Amino acid sequence: xxxxxxxxxxxxxxxxxxxxxxxxxxxxxxxxxxxxxxxxxxxxxxxxxxxxxxxxxxxxxxxxxxxxxxxxxxxxxxxxxxxxxxxxxxxxxxxxxxxxxxxxxxxxxxxxxxxxxxxxxxxxxxxxxxxxxxxxxxxxxxxxxxxxxxxxxxxxxxxxxxxxxxxxxxxxxxxxxxxxxxxxxxxxxxxxxxxxxxxxxxxxxxxxxxxxxxxxxxxxxxxxxxxxxxxxxxxxxxxxxxxxxxxxxxxxxxxxxxxxxxxxxxxxxxxxxxxxxxxxxxxxxxxxxxxxxxxxxxxxxxxxxxxxxxxxxxxxxxxxxxxxxxxxxxxxxxxxxxxxxxxxxxxxxxxxxxxxxxxxxxxxxxxxxxxxxxxxxxxxxxxxxxxxxxxxxxxx
Length: 396
Known about the structure:
It contains 13 helices and 14 strands. With 396 residues, it is an alpha/beta fold. The strands form 3 sheets. Strands 4-10-9-8-7-5-6 form a 7-stranded mixed sheet, sandwiched between helices. A 4-stranded mixed sheet has the order 1-2-3-13. The longest helix has 21 residues, at 374-394.
């Protein structure tokens, strides 16, 4: 199967891990030889409730037996999407009261950028160095990593960049700025949290000049960082929120949220200001609803902070220089890309799934399902520590 995978599917990197998946359940992935792998990555933060969660599975099955796609987004009232958007809004700040559902995080970014320009009538967009918001052309335009995008230029014009947590750079937000897009915790850059009320200061500057603050919650959102959304940890309310990844228990989805006075602008002058065929797909929306209900009812956000404490207490080793992040969005930092690569690859052979971050080569990604048990955390951390000991001996 792996050879056919290489032959018939386009690749994203020269050296894929090549696991031949048979099935997955709970916190484990099983290969075609029935080896099991403890999953500390959760499909890169997407499988928020683990694999084959019964509530999500049943919601999908029930909806499949009722109806699937019937009409393009925004024409028919369909219960799963309506119920999901209502529950989501009920758990947000009152100013964030209308949702647009799309198919992926990068599509949500595209919609948010368009909305900022539509609301303000301005063109300039500001992002951060080492930011990642998706890989379509608009999202790539606000990606702050030139090496990954220079070959695809020209991209969208009138985009400027600042450095995350650099308050002096906020002067770049002016009356020409439509919006500034930030991750509540920078993901690809190394799970970097805002410091010294940075997000609060960005919002204040936006209010001063009439720009919109767009917060990307694709990775930190849905309980992963101790609150439903990451920005709630930093005392700020954005104008637009971008969501994706963990919102449907592993199903493909995204969305952006704003005040109705902004969102309603997409319906006229011109009408069809943003359209999607499959956004709000009833089967996906049913998975979203079940996932959100489960996260709220079981208070997985609070649990993520307790599990963070356990990870931090266990992952103490000379090769780990620090652990960045919050909740179950953690990065164990080593002193070199080489050590990180060795640890990730060796742990994979031992049955523990770890992964890399996009732009920070020293980081070991630890983003397990929110449902992971304390016993599974201890088991995975023991594999990591044993592997770190091996690597330490070899790199003395």
